[in-house]
Structures are given as structure tokens and as C-alpha cells.
Write a structure and sequence with these properties.
16 helices, 28 strands, globular, alpha/beta, Rossmann fold, about 30% helix, Metallo-beta-lactamase, Chain A, 3 domains, eight-stranded mixed sheet, Ubiquitin-like (UB roll)
Length: about 550
């Protein structure tokens, strides 16, 4: 194989759903596509999120964002901190979302806006944004071509095909075909999110309108709806139906208010001022309201959870409420959402989910949609991305059956696809790096600290403080505290004190480190005999 003129390396977003970030390298240009975060599947004890490891990333000149979902823009702040000279490009709506995130974190940074009709020129290649449909406005795929226009890479991590939508133009196949028709080798990096779904063709966003209209018509009292705050077209449906049925619409929750305000500032939402009201301007118990609740995945601090649990300071659930779950559970969140639905059911409110009525449609393609894209673009090579490892394998099997003329490629994070001047492709396996854990104010939390947190959370803790005599032979004062241990232990602290006093008779503190460790082990054994497990134990000697 000759020297590669182009290298493509995903550093996040394959083998997982989240933290999307792909590195594109030419001889002169190094760009990143997207900079997303990953929400952990397992219980990481209240960490914020995870991001790709940027340690070995060559310095990029540009970051191009395809759309405004958190798994594509959430790590922008980390990228610009590491690469302060990078140029960030995004659509107007996406740029608005990024600016608000950066302002919230007191990290303003210039964002260059591009439109779907723009042509982005670089030294080694060109990029044409291709408008696609998705569950957030202004989503694009990126068609990258060499200057000879022999090689093309169509990168489209999130999309659906919606010919009926009333809120945006359909997928721009006309531009895609026109811009790619003379290419000799066409590579497609493409969404795998719904590859295992039984829904072969994803319904249109428009299909939920008559169903929602009927529900609004039949509701006599308050309506509460939870959905993804970023689904502006869905929110526009709720606003238009609220106007039609004489209701006021209240966004409730920080993300819901932020997304709606960003869209309104850009002139995207008709009837905003006449229909949309803030919670403090309405009476919570009035019947003619539609309340949009953020946190549709049952997030612990989310507004939807607070409402369901009766903990929200403004809106309390009532038995005559209509509660609509206009979203799908992300894998791993099913139990949390089920718990909240049960809480609402106990009150007697009517709950409707997407399993009962079409009040939610996906933003990702079914298998028939994928085949339609293959037929339009006519790729020579297809690389499944944006999905868990099992999705990637299932997508490869689909390619073999539905479009056998293309070569499918199994590709994971940190693998590198190399393209040489004869347009040959080669995939080189890369060293896998664990994602970086972010906690608090964008602070990195080392992975081993999660293990410490787990032990503290599961086993509780014992803190013992000792004041030792100058001769290091006697303990003059003992104090201790218990955290997360049963009342059985806290009620019998005299017994524990006697255990310590008896233990001190036998030891000397002349070898402080050795004595401290022996005492820690003895205390853990003491509690293990009572509890059946060993709490985390900390010794402090004065």
C-alpha cells in the first residue's frame, strides 16, 4: 500500500452510544468531527459524564459539529481547553447551544457558523454539509472529497429519512448525488442506532400530530409532557396544539427553557410569545396548561422525576392529570422510568407512553431507511458507526444481505482507516484508551477513585481519631464516627470503644505506620464479625 493521503480515526462513538468524536488527517489538515460526551451505563456515583481521551490526539485546526445533541457537543469545552487555537464550526442553532454552554461555564469562545449550502475548503480536501432529518434541527452529514474528486467519505452519524415533515426540508439526496456522482471510491460512515429495531422504516415526526391532537382534545384538566428538550420540532407541535386548544404552554426545567429560548431567539418558533409562559406567571393548578418537563430519562435531579415524586416546588401531580411520555427509554434507564410511572399511577393520573399510542418517533433510521441511503449514495464501502459493538456487527450482516456490492468494514474507536493515492483502504487496529471521567467543574476523576466511591457507598465508613502520649505508649483520647452503618452499630458505640481500649493495651505506637495499618485491619475484622462485611476504615493519629 502506498503512503496514505487521508486517515480517519474515531476516538469515540463506536462500540458505544455517546462521546462521538472522529479525527480526520490529511498531509496538511487535521480536523475533528463532533465533540460529544457519554453518560455512563453503570452507577458511577454521581459523576457528570465521560469524554474521549484526548491525550494522543494530534493538534487539530478545526472542529466541525454536525448537530446539537449532547453526545456531539458536550465535550466542546474540553476540546477548546486542550486546543485553544482550534476553530469551531457549527450551524446557527447548534452554535447558539454551544455558546450558551460555554457562557454557563464562564468559558466564552468564538464559534463560526456555517449553513447547509456552504462549501468548506481545506488544503487536502473539501467538505460539503448535506442536510438530513433527525430529532434536532439543523443536522447535517458531511461529504468529504479529495481535490481530484476521486475519493469521497460521507459521514452521517445521526439521521432519519422524513419525506413528510412540515418543519424542515427532507433529506437532501439531490445534493448528495450531485456532489458525489463522479467519485471512484465512496465510503459511507453511517448510523447504527436502530439496526436491531423491528421498525424497518422510521415514521415521520408529522405522524404524531393527529394522535397528540386527539389527546389534547380529550384532556379536561392539566397536561404534562416529558420529552427530549432538544427535539424542537416536537416542542413546536405541542405549542401549535396548545394554541389550537386554548392552552398555555409552560417549559419547566432548565434544559427545556434553554433549548426553547435558543430556538425562539433564532426566530424558529411561531406563536412563542402568545402561547409560551414561564411557570411563575401561571397558577399551578389551573386546568388549561400544558407543562413540558425536562429529564425524560428519569434523571435523579431532573424535573420529570421531581414532579412524579411530588417533590417539585411548583407542580404537584393530581389524579385528574394527563401525563404523556413522548420519548423512549435509553438502555439502562427503564427501571428509573418505570418507578416514576408507578408513582404517577398510585396518585391515579392517566399515563400514556409511546408503547400505547404513537406519541414518539425515533430520530434514527430503520433497516429499510439504511438500504434506501445505500441505493442513493451507492457506496463502495460501508462502515457502521454510532452504536454499541453488537449493533455494529448486526449492521454488517444487514449490509451483506441488503447491499452486497459494498464492502462492509468492522471499525472501533482508535482504529485507523488509511486511504492511499490509488484509493486503496486499509484499517489498522489502534490502542484502545478508556474514556476520561468528568466530575464537578469539568474536573477529571481518576478511574481508581470510582472504586473507592463504590466501597464507601456500599460498605459505609469508620473514622477513628487518636491522641497519643509523648512517650508513644498510651492513648490519651479516642474519638470515632460512623457513616452509612446500621443503627445497630451506632447504638453500641460503647462496645466498640471497649474493643479499642483493650486493643491499645497490647500495642506500642513507636512504629506508627505499622501500628496504624494493624489497627485498621483489626477494626475491619471487628465489624466484619458483626455486619458480615468490612466498612472502609480511616485512622488519624495526633
Amino acid at each position: 500500500m502506498k503512503k496514505a493521503f487521508l486517515k480517519i480515526k474515531p476516538v469515540g462513538g463506536i462500540g458505544q452510544i455517546g462521546s462521538n468524536m472522529t479525527l480526520i488527517q490529511g498531509d496538511n489538515d487535521t480536523i475533528l468531527i463532533d465533540a460529544g460526551i457519554l453518560f455512563p451505563y453503570e452507577d458511577f456515583f454521581d459523576i457528570n459524564y465521560l469524554i474521549p481521551d484526548l491525550t494522543n490526539i494530534p493538534t487539530p485546526t478545526h472542529l466541525i459539529i454536525t448537530h446539537g445533541h449532547e453526545d456531539h457537543i458536550g465535550a466542546v469545552i474540553h476540546v477548546i481547553k486542550k486546543f485553544p487555537n482550534i476553530k469551531v464550526l457549527a450551524s446557527p442553532f447548534t452554535a447558539g447551544l454551544i455558546r450558551k454552554k460555554l457562557e454557563f461555564n464562564h468559558t466564552p469562545f468564538p464559534i463560526t457558523e456555517y449553513r447547509h449550502y456552504d462549501h468548506l475548503g481545506f488544503q487536502d480536501f473539501t467538505i460539503d454539509p448535506i442536510h438530513v432529518n433527525h430529532s434536532i434541527p439543523e443536522t447535517v452529514g458531511l461529504l468529504l472529497k479529495d481535490h481530484k474528486e476521486e475519493f469521497g467519505l460521507f459521514f452521517i452519524s445521526d439521521f432519519k429519512i422524513d419525506y413528510k415533515t412540515i418543519y424542515e426540508r427532507p433529506f437532501d439526496f439531490e445534493k448528495l448525488i450531485k456532489k458525489s456522482k463522479d467519485l471512484k471510491r465512496r465510503v459511507l460512515l453511517v448510523d447504527s442506532t436502530n439496526i436491531t429495531s423491528s421498525t424497518l422504516k422510521t415514521p415521520s415526526e408529522t405522524d404524531i400530530i393527529p394522535v397528540m391532537d386527539e389527546l389534547f382534545q380529550g384532556a379536561e384538566k392539566r397536561i404534562f409532557i416529558t420529552c427530549f428538550s432538544s427535539n424542537i420540532h416536537r416542542l413546536m407541535t405541542f405549542i401549535s396544539l396548545a394554541k389550537k386548544h386554548g392552552r398555555k404552554l409552560i417549559p419547566h426545567g432548565r434544559s427545556m427553557i434553554s433549548y426553547l429560548n435558543t430556538a425562539n431567539e433564532l426566530g424558529m418558533i411561531p406563536d412563542f410569545d402568545s402561547v409560551v409562559k414561564m411557570a411563575e406567571s401561571v397558577t399551578p393548578n389551573q386546568d388549561n396548561v400544558v407543562v413540558l418537563l425536562s429529564g425524560c430519562q428519569g434523571d435523579f435531579r431532573g424535573t420529570f422525576r421531581r414532579f412524579c415524586m411530588g417533590e417539585d416546588s411548583t407542580f404537584k401531580p393530581r389524579k385528574d392529570d394527563l401525563v404523556l411520555l413522548s420519548s423512549k427509554s435509553i438502555p439502562g434507564n427503564e427501571k428509573k422510568i418505570s418507578l416514576l410511572m408507578n408513582k404517577i399511577a398510585e396518585i391515579g393520573a392517566r399515563v400514556i407512553t409511546a408503547q400505547e399510542k404513537m406519541i414518539h418517533v425515533s430520530g434514527h433510521p430503520g433497516r429499510d431507511d439504511l438500504t434506501h441511503l445505500y441505493e442513493q449514495y451507492q457506496p463502495t464501502d460501508i462502515v457502521p458507526i454510532h452504536g454499541e459493538s453488537s449493533f455494529i456487527r448486526a449492521h454488517i450482516e444487514h449490509i451483506k444481505k441488503s447491499y452486497p456490492t459494498a464492502i462492509p468494514h468492522y471499525f472501533l474507536n482508535f482504529d485507523e482507516m488509511q486511504v492511499d493515492t490509488d484509493l486503496n483502504l486499509k484499517i489498522v487496529p489502534g490502542e484502545k484508551l478508556d474514556p476520561v471521567i468528568i466530575h464537578g467543574k469539568q474536573i477529571v476523576l481518576e478511574k481508581e477513585k470510582i472504586s473507592e466511591r463504590r466501597k464507601l457507598a456500599c460498605n459505609g465508613s469508620v473514622f477513628v481519631s487518636l491522641k497519643v502520649s509523648k512517650s508513644l505508649t498510651d492513648v490519651e483520647k479516642i474519638s470515632f464516627t460512623f457513616q452509612g452503618l446500621p443503627t445497630l452499630i451506632t447504638k453500641s458505640d460503647d462496645k466498640f470503644r471497649r474493643f479499642l481500649e483493650n486493643y491499645f493495651v497490647q500495642i506500642s505506637f513507636k512504629d506508627m505506620d505499622k501500628t496504624t495499618e494493624e489497627l485498621r485491619i483489626a477494626i475491619r475484622k471487628y465489624f466484619d464479625q458483626i455486619l458480615g462485611y468490612k466498612p472502609q476504615t480511616f485512622i488519624h493519629i495526633l
